[in-house]
Amino acid sequence: MNGSNGSERILRRFAASVKTVIAIFFLIPLVFTILVSVRPEAEPVTRGNIFFGSEVTWENYDRALIIAPWSMHYVNSVIFVAGVLLAQLVTVTCAAYAFARMRFFGRNLLLLIILLQLMIPSGVLLVQNFRMINTLGLFDTRIALMIPYWGSAFGVLLLRQTFREVPIELEEAARIDGANLVQVIRHVYVTNAIPAYLAFALVSVSSHWNEFLWPFIITRSAEIRPLTVGLNKLIKTTDQGAFYGQLMAGTLIVIAPLVLLFLLFQRQFVESFARSGIR
Amino acid sequence: MRLRSQRKPLVSYLQPYLLIAPTLILVLMFNVVPAINTVRDSLYKPARGLNAAGKPPEFVGAENFRDLFDESHYLGARFLRTFRNTIVFALATVIIGVPLGLLLALLLNQKQPLLGLWRFAVFYPSLLPLIGAASIWSFIFSDSIGLANAVLKSLGHPGLNWLGDRNLVLLSVIVVNIWKQAGYFMIFFLAGLQNIPRDIYESASLDGASDAQQFVALTMPLLRRTLLFVIVIAFIFAFQTVEQLQALGEGGPNDSANLLLYLIFQNISERRNWGYVNAMTIVLIGVVLTFTLSNFLLFERDESN
């Protein structure tokens, strides 16, 4: 009865092989990135053994490391991502509380204005935001990198929804105990919304870690440019001579942290990304 | 107990506004005002002719838009080709990527050995920076030593110029995008599948419905909302993902694989094209806005509780 007849079994076999084929197709790029990164540059995959060259070598990593100041880019990416997230946590928490639990004149209109961010994302406003940063005199600064992301309509929506689910009696009890607004937000709402904060943080960190166009346009100095811009430099260097070994080594240097983070927090990542769409 | 509102009326009146002020100001500064400026600047052209430097831009009405949609104009030809590419790119992502995401979700929804590994295999591309993903594929598509051609040559085919042939570059860019997004789409379908109560299936199979019948009669109707949602975000995403072009042919020979936002990016420092760049941005905003609004109209309404 439960699918054990012949045609169902064939269907299941078929599903399993489809799954395997797709998974292999999806994994091949990563596997070859790793293989090419430790393969001698003089031995392209078209020559000799397709998987391994004559030896495993780190020389591609050595050369990739010379082309861009990766450790500096690492620090810059961490500062960028953390600077965005910390500011967002403050702005988003305040706004979410106001929209979830306060009654005030113009509430719906103001929420609608904030939601405009979802309809006109700053990513498509490259030209005018570039101009805005220049007007503010912030070109080529860390602030310029981060400031367009400090407000997050997605975060406000996510936490407003979560805060609304916190029983109002908890706030009333805290108020009776003499808690002020900051204490109420911190001890009643934030503590009861940790999973939502984690979801928001994972989405925020992973999207800004991967940001390229904006940092590329708005900065000039390597001292503040993030990893993706360093990778771009490596791509442009590689274009001329097709040194794919060093390009793959550099690519791995850039993507490793998020892939490792994902391996550690697989379940949370999947849940967070799912929530990021539900809005 | 004295009520707070009686003690500090003004402060408590202002409180909500102070709490939302940071977010509101940032959204005004980096979304609303720039959008308004885009509209304004799309109606102007930088001053032309001798001694143009320092002169204010001239108002030209809709001329920038007319030029963009004029095949004989130097930028219009590029814009039209790029706009067509962007639509093909978005449609291909939706038509191939969304069903693939659904298929993956169906395959990986049940408990099975190595579930974590399977999910990693299909989801990791969506975590990579676009430019990193493109960098990986630039090797696979590389003319002389790339993996794609190594496979073709072993099959006796002379190999293809994936990133140099004007008929192939867009296809290559589409393949990369589908590879990158399918796992992300899968996440939403998995969430949608998990919201379907198990007992529906149990009673269906007690009634003798096969897996295929259950899929058609139960799963698909119950996933309809998720499906619509994923289609909408797939379109919105497709219009904003362009960074991969940086490593995959930079728009291809003759803009054969250029995408709208990348064309804007390429012209950002061209002063004479300032009006056009803003007009192109208006077109892009128009498209994104249409899809996001339809998203809100389709879904926000019945989630208002």
Gist of the model:
Chain A has helices spanning 6-37, 59-67, 70-101, 107-119, 126-135, 142-146, 153-164, 168-176, 181-190, 194-209, 213-218, 227-241, 244-264, 266-278. By secondary structure, chain A is mainly alpha-helical.
Tell me what you see in this structure:
With 279 residues, chain A is mostly helical. Helices cover 73% and strands 0% of the residues of chain A. Chain A folds into two domains: 57 residues; 208 residues, MetI-like fold (Orthogonal Bundle), CATH 1.10.3720. Chain B has 305 residues and is an all-alpha fold. Chain B has a single domain, classed as MetI-like fold, CATH 1.10.3720.10. Chain B is 66% helix and 1% strand. The longest helix of chain B has 34 residues. Chain B is globular. Chains A and B meet through α1, α3, α4, α5 and α12 of A and α2, α4, α5, α6 and α7 of B.
Rg of chain A: 24 Å
What's the level 1 CATH class of chain B? Mainly Alpha
Average pLDDT rating of chain B: 84
Element-by-element helix/strand order of chain A: HHHHHHHHHHHHHH
* Beta-strand residue percentage of chain A: under 5%
Oligomer: heterodimer
Helix content of chain B: 55-70%
Helicity of chain A, in percent? over 70%
The CATH architecture of the largest domain in chain A is Orthogonal Bundle
Morphology of chain A:
globular
Predict the CATH topology of the largest domain in chain A. Answer: MetI-like fold
Largest sheet of chain A: none
How many domains of chain A? The number is 2
What CATH architecture label of chain B applies? Orthogonal Bundle
The name of the CATH superfamily of chain B reads MetI-like
Distance between the termini of chain A: 40 Å
